[in-house]
Amino acid sequence: MNKSSLNTPARLSGHWLWGSAQALAAAPHQFMAHAASPFNGLVSVRVLHKRIIAVNDANIVRHIMVTHHQRYRRSYHYINPVLGQGLLSTDGPLWQKRRRQVQPAFRRETMLHLVHMANTTADKLFAHWDAATAAGQPLDVLTEMQKFALSVNSQALLSLDVSWDAAEKFGLAVRDALKLLRQRNNAVLRFPAWLPTHLNRQLAHTRTILEEHITPIIKRRRAHPAEHTDILAALLDARDPETGDALSDQEILDETKTLFAAGFETTATALTWAIYLLVHNPAQASRFYAEVDSVLEGRAPQWEDLPNLPFTANMINEVLRLYPPVYNIARECIEADEINGMRIKKGSVVVMSILGIHRDEQWWPEPLQFLPDRFSQNWPKQAYLPFATGRHLCVGNHFALTEMAVALICIAQRYRVELIDPTLVGMAAQITLVPDRTLAFKLVARS
Fold first, then answer.
1. Cα(184)–Cα(80) distance, rounded to whole angstroms?
2. Residue 322 · residue 370 · CB < 8 Å
3. 301-335 per-residue burial string, b: 16 or more CB within 10 A, e: under 16
4. Average per-residue pLDDT in the chain?
5. Global pTM exceeds 0.90
6. Residue 19 forms beta bridges with which residues?
7. 249-288 as b/e, with b when 16 or more CB fall inside 10 Å?
8. Do residues 401 and 305 lie in contact, with contact meaning Cβ atoms separated by under 8 Å?
9. Helix residue spans in 103-163 (DSSP H)
10. How far is the C-alpha of 119 from the C-alpha of 270, rounded, in Å?
11. What Cα–Cα distance (Å) separates residue 357 from each residue in 54, 190, 350, 367?
12. Which CATH architecture fits 3-445?
């Protein structure tokens, strides 16, 4: 690389004091999706005293995440004193070893167990919905999908059947942890985790809630092994195929917390957007209902049925394209790089917009339209990143897709969901990309 011949990235203009901090804080999903568009997909942005590089071009993301991944590592955004040294927080040799140990946990037996748990949870959820509807109690799509996802994940990970109240308490702890971590990692000053600041004390409290919930289960299962088909059983049995190393109790705890955190909130958000899109696209919803009715004829979905439901799979892919729960991903440059003739300095933090790429008309004609059939033909895989890409492709991607499919199928077999307020909603960047208002719903039985 001839550094003298390279240009520096263009700089986005902003406020003389705080740069683009205000715009980024107000709408990080929209800001990152659009900031780099006038600059060929890459632009330098000042946020107070720091500079970051905003990217919304699929080819540049591939350069960073796939072809030149060795020049980048996870940025400070992933430092996680609550979840510990799990797959979501680590990189380099430690991450590679852990990935080899954890990957086998998502085996066929785990997926069969997941489908069974999702069916069982759906039945329990529907009883709750019917009772609430009969009592005239309002229901919120996101809240109900969070209950479903957390219950399924509790059973699939730990064979733990939790009440709705317990699920809500644990779910709030996970969400609080992620929200507090985002505040900490995006703060101007990031104090060490051991320093007893108000934020660090809050983080310690949420970590205690999570660990007091999970640690006794791990110790009990270690002391009294029994036949289980859940992910914890696979983690207890896991061995590094290269070294033969098993996971310690602390490592299993970190991975279990990570799988909870990474799995339930994103799945619940995606299911919420799926229901919203089906309500607003009745023609596509009718095709979905027709496929489910034709293939399953009223029986509960099984793992073997999913390949026979292609429109359902395409529909879920399209939901994740339009509303990716994880809207930005970040990396730190650890070796000076060149992208499109631009010098990327060592130490630069690059923030890549999944939402921007998913709505780029260069790759997706009519990008704002809900068109599941676009996934039935040749589609641009490099511009589809709901689970990231490259070596850090989400280990639980098939788990999430399966859970979503079973949930939506079960709902479709029994109900047609109607929103109390059918007007369009916007997006809000919280832990994940959520609707910007509550989606209260009512149920119409399908005969």
1. 10
2. yes
3. beeebbeebebbbbbbbbbbbbbbbbbbbbbbbee
4. 89
5. yes
6. 15, 47
7. eebbbbbbbbbbbbbbbbbbbbbbbbbbbbbebeebbebb
8. no
9. 108-134, 141-158
10. 18
11. 12, 30, 15, 10
12. Orthogonal Bundle (1.10)
Kindly state the tokens that stand for 394.
């989400």
pLDDT tens readout for residues 69-127: 999 999 877 777 777 888 888 899 989 988 988 888 888 888 998 999 999 999 999 99
CB–CB of 146/264 below 8 Å? yes
Closest CA to 155 of 107, 108, 122: 122
Number of Cβ atoms within 10 Å of the Cβ of 172 = 14
Give the pLDDT score at 192: 65
- The residues spanned by each domain of the chain are 3-445
Six-digit token string for 154: 């509790």
Structure tokens at 224: 């009294």
Report the pLDDT value the prediction gives residue 159, as an integer from 0 to 100: 81
Helix 198-223 × helix 249-280 angle, to 10°: 110
DSSP state of 179: H
**Cα distance between residue 283 and residue 9, in whole Å:** 45
CA distance to 131, 181, 313, 374, per residue, from 378 (Å)? 45, 39, 15, 8
Contacts of 16 (CB under 8 A, 6+ apart): none
The residue type found at 380 is P
> Which two tokens mark 328?
């930005």
Residues 6+ apart with CB under 8 A from 259: 86, 153, 157, 231, 396
